[in-house]
Amino acid sequence: MTAEPFTRPWLRDMALRSLTEPRAAAAELLSLSIPRDVLWTWLALLSVLNGVLYWSTLPAQVEVGVMVPAFMHSPILLTLGLAGLMILMTQFLVLAGRVLGGSGDFFRMLQITCWLQSLRLVFQMAVVIVTTIAPGIGAIMAVVGGIWGIFVLVNFLTEAHRFGTPLKAVATMVFAMLASAFALSFILAILGVTPEGAL
Predict the structure, then answer these.
(1) pLDDT at 123 over 50
(2) Which residues lie below 8 Å from residue 161, measured CB to CB, with a gap of 6+?
């Protein structure tokens, strides 16, 4: 018997299937009719939680010599930037996929974005905890998780756009990442936000 969506058993099963059977997990996720206001609320919550997590790790990054843009030291700007990046990424995943013959739409893709970002947030929290205890193991976890995350995303995109081959999903992902980074940089420049801070 299948568990009710978003109950604890369902979340546990979906998280596991997303890692081991990502295309089947994507099909189940996309079969759900999640209201648009719930998706926007989910996205906002993820932006805040990711912002808090990134902001809390900034001192450690600065300590080891990582160059961090000044605007990222503001929790509000950081959270808004993350929200904007997720929205841009979602839209570009739709546009790039359609150019390649895909059939995904914005809100189907937003479901995928919110779900995968939720899994990523949990994983990043685990990495942060492990890194404070064993930095070497934490670094290995981050690399392995990043590679596996690409595999999962490609399968989710293949299902969302109903591609016949994962290669189109790879191309969609690469284009969307590059376009999102460029668009976000352009928007920040228009707003007067530079790597050194606000003008």
Answers:
(1) yes
(2) 97, 98, 100, 101, 102, 103, 104, 168, 169, 172
* Chain Cα centroid distance, residue 164: 24
Token representation of residue 169: 């999903």
H-assigned helices in the chain: 8-20, 22-30, 36-63, 75-99, 106-133, 135-161, 166-190
DSSP assigned state of 54:
H
**Ranges of each domain in the chain:** 34-198
| Residue 57, burial from CB neighbour count under 10 angstroms (0-12, 13-18, 19+) | middle
Q: Is 165 helix (H, G, I), strand (E, B) or coil?
A: coil
Both tokens of 43, joined, read 């996205």
Alpha carbon distances (Å) from 150 to 31, 94, 142, 160, 198: 22, 17, 12, 15, 33
Contact call for residues 161 and 154 (beta carbons, < 8 A): no
Q: What is the mean pLDDT of the chain?
A: 88
- Tokens, residue 48: 């805040």
Q: How do 197-198 and 193-194 pair as beta strands?
A: antiparallel
Per-residue pLDDT tens over the stretch 12-41:
999 999 999 999 999 999 999 999 999 999
